[in-house]
Amino acid sequence: MLRRFLLLLPLFFFLLANTTAAADSVQVLVLPFEIHADQDLSYLKEEIPKTIREDLQAEGAVMVPPDSAQGVAASASDLDDVGTLRQTGLEAGADYIVWGSLTRIGDSISLDTRMIESVGTKPVYAVYEAGAGMESLRNIVNQSSQKLARHLFSRDIITQIRVTGNRRIEADAIERVIRSKTGDVLRAGEIAKDMKNIYKMGYFDDIRVESETDPDGKVIVFHVTEKPTIRRISLSGNQVFEDDKLRENLNISTGSILNIFTIKSNIDQLQSMYKDKNYHNVNITYAVHEQENNQADIEFVIEEGNKVKIDKITFLGNTTLTDKELLKLIKTSERGFFSWLTSSGELNREDLKQDAGRIMGHYQISGFIHAKVADPVVDFEDEAIHITFKIEEGERFKVGRIDIQGDLIIPKEKLMPALKIAKEPFFSRETVRQDIVSLTDVYANAGFAYASVSPLTKENRQTHLVDITYSIDKGEKVYFENIEIVGNTRTRDKVIRRELRIYEQQLYSGSRLKRSVRNLNRLDYFEDVKVDTPKGSADDRMRVKLEVTEKPTGSFTFGAGYSTVDKFFVTGSITQRNLFGRGQTLKLSGQIGGSSDLYNIGFTEPWLFDIPLSGTVNIYRQTREYDTYDRTSRGGTVGVSYPIWDYTRVSLAYRYDITDLDDIEDDANDNVKALEGENATSAVTIALTYDSRDKTFNTTNGQYHRLAYTYAGPGGDIGFNKVVAELGWYIPVFKNLVTFLHGESGTVRQTSGYILPDYEKFYLGGMNSIRGFDYQDINIPTVNSDGEDSEEGGLSYVQFNFELTYPIVKDLGLVGVLFYDTGNVYADESIDIGDLRQSAGYGIRWYSPIGPIRIEAGHILDPREDEDSSAKWEFSMGAAF
C-alpha cells in the first residue's frame, strides 16, 4: 500500500501545485446582481451572489464579505465603469470582482455574469448561461460558478479516461466504479477515490495513474495489474482430517482470484476445525507458487500437533460439596488411563457451558439459593488443558413455613399433603416448580384453564429458613367451545372424535385433553398430532384445534427369521389398520417354518354400533411338530371386548377348532394316543385385561395384567375348565434401568363326559417361560401303557420372572438384560411353591430395522442328574422387508 501511495504522490502534487497556491491567494468579491423581470424577483438580487459565493468557496477561493465594498452601494451601477469596479476591489482587498444580472422574459431566463481582476489590464471575463423556467435557475448559477472557478484557478478538464493492463476483467466493469467522467474538472481528490474504488473490486495487485496533456485538457490513464487466478489448491501435513473434509470448509476454488485476505480467512476456518477436535496447537500457513499465464498454486501447510486433553479440573469456593461430588455432576472429565481409546478428557465447549448450569442447578435444589457459578476458565498449557470453576456457595436454607392462599377450590388441608417441598430437607426451586405444576393441574382439571400459581418466598438469614406461600388466582371456569379437526384426508372425523375424552360445551380438563392426545397417538394412524387451544368467543370459552398428519396404515411385509423352537421360518402379511378410514383392521398372514406352519385371516371393528365395543373375527389353520406327534388345527374365533376402566378391557370370545393328531411316536403319552385322529373343540373364553405399557418391545414403563377363564364342552369332543392369571410390572429404577416383575399361574380341569387333551395342559421351558430349559422341558414324567418313558403336561403351573434391562445404545434400541426365572408344572391342581425349578442368565435385545431380535442365555441353577447347567443360548428374530 505504501508503494502504491508513493506512486500516486507525483500526480497528486502535479495536479494540486497550482490550485493550492491559487486557492491560498485568490480573494473574490461577489456583488449583488441586478434583476430584470416583469414580476417581483428582487430576492434573487442577494440569493444569486450567495450561491456563487458558496460554489467558489467550495472550490478553494477566499470570499470577501460584500459589506467590504464601500465604493459600490448595491451593485455595479455602470457595468462599463471598469475603473470604478477595480478601485472597489482594491479597497475591499479582493483579487477578483464578480457581478452580473438576471433577465427573465416570459419563461426564458438568462444569467449574464462578469469577472475582472482588481489589478491589471486584462479584459472582463464574461459567462453567459440561459434556460427555461425558474426550476432551471439553480443549475444555471452552478454552471456559471464552475466556469468562473476554472478561469480563476486555470484547472484542466478531463477529456478522456482510459484503462490499461487488464486481461480478464472487462474495462467496462472497471469504468463503472470510476466516478470521474469526461468533461469533469480534474481534481486529485476524486482521482484518489477512484483508485480506492478499483482496489475494492479485489481483482488487482497494483494500480498506477498517469495524465497526458492534449489541446483541450488532460487524458487520465489507469494502469492496472491483475491478481493471479488460482490454478490448484493443495493440502499437506494433515492426518486428522481427510483432504475432502478440509476442502468442504474452504470457500475458495480453482479459477477464483487469489486474495490474501480470503486465504487467511480460510486458514482461520481450518484452525477452528482442528480446535473443535482439541488440536489447539495446530499451526497452518500457506505458500503461493506462481505459474505461467498469471496463475498460481495455493498450498495450505498444516502442522497438526498433538491432541490436547483436559489434565486438571479445579473447583474453587466449594466447601459443602466435595470436588468428587461435583465431578460426578458434570459431563466434562479429566483424561484417564484409557483416554487414548475413549473420549475422556476431551474439551467440548457446549458441554462445558452446560456444566456450569448443572453445578448451579444442583446447588439450588440443595438449599443454596444464592449460589453462583462463574463461566469456567479454560487455560491451555502446552499439551494440557486446565479448567477452573469458581463457585460462591452462599448460605444454605431449609424449608420453613408452607402455606397456600388465594382462591381455594379444595380445602387447604387436602392440598397441603400433595406438596413435595414439605418432604425436602432443603429448599429446592425445582421442587417448588413441580408443586406449581401440580397445583395448576388440580385447577385445570376442575375447569380453571388459566389458573395462576405464584410462589411467594421469604428468607430469614438468621434462621436460614425460607417460608413459602403458594398464591392462587383461579380465574374463571373455562368451557370447550368447539373442537376442530384438520389434516385428516383419509381418516373419518368420527374415528378421531371417538378417541377424545373432551367434548364441546364441556368444562375444561387438562388431564382429559392430554389423554385425548395420547389416545390419538396410540391409534398409530398419524405421524404427528398437534393441539392448539386459543381463546374462544368469550373469556370463559376455549377452542380446540387438532391438527393431524396422517401416515400410511397399510403394509405388505415379507420376512424371515430363526428361533430355537421353529428353526428357520419365513413369514408374510398384508395388513390395513385403517380400512377405508373407518379404523377397522384387516390382516392376512402366513408363516412357514421348520416345525410349524400358520395361516390366518382376521378382521377387527373397534367400535361396533358406534360404541367402544370391539369385535373380532379370525380364521386360521396351524400345524406343529411336537417331539412325539404332529398336530394340525383349523378353526376360527369370534370375539368382542369393551373398555370398563382406563387401560382395562373385558373380552368374550368363542372358538371352534378341529384338531388332527397323527405321526404319533411309541413314546407318546396315553392321552395323545387316545386322541389320534380328529377332535373338535368348542370353547368360550372371558378375560379381563389391563395394559398400560408404553410399548410392547423394550418396554420401559407400565403394567400388563390378565385374568382369563375358558370353558370348553358342548358342541365338541373336548371339555375342560381353564383359569390363567398373569401379572406384570415394568418399573423404572434409576435413570434408564428398568425392572420387570412378572408372575403367571393357571389350572385346568377336565369336564365330565369330555376329553382333556395334552395340548391344553401346561408345559414350561423355553425363551418365553423358563429360560435355560428346552422348549416344554418342564413337564410331568410318566410311563405310557406300552411301558415307554413319556411326558405330559401339568394340570396347574406357576411361573415367576425377574428382569433388569438397561439400554446399551439407546438410539439404536439395543438393550442388555439380566434375568432370573423360576416355576414348575404339577400333576394336579395343587401348587407347591417349595418345588420350583430355577434359572438365571443374560442377553441382549435389539429392536432392529428388520424387526425385534432376542439373544439370551440361561443357566439352570438346580440341575438334576441328566441336566446340564452350562449356558443354553436361545435366539429369535423376526423380520419384515
CATH class call of the largest domain: Mainly Beta
Alpha-carbon distance between the two ends: 68 Å
Report the structural category.
alpha+beta
Question: Low-confidence runs (pLDDT<50, min 5 residues)?
Answer: 1-24, 71-79
How many β strands by DSSP?
A: 40
Fold-level CATH name of the largest domain: Porin
What's the mean pLDDT score?
86
The dominant shape is elongated
Q: In percent terms, what proportion of residues is strand?
A: 35-45%
Question: Main beta sheet, described?
Answer: 16 strands, antiparallel, barrel
Number of domains: 7
Compute the CA-based radius of gyration.
49 Å
CATH superfamily of the largest domain: membrane protein fhac: a member of the omp85/tpsb transporter family
Helicity, in percent?
10-25%
> How would you write the strand order of the largest sheet?
23-24-25-26-27-28-29-30-31-32-33-36-37-38-39-40
CATH architecture of the largest domain: Beta Barrel
**Number of helices, counting only DSSP H or I runs of 4 residues or more:** 15
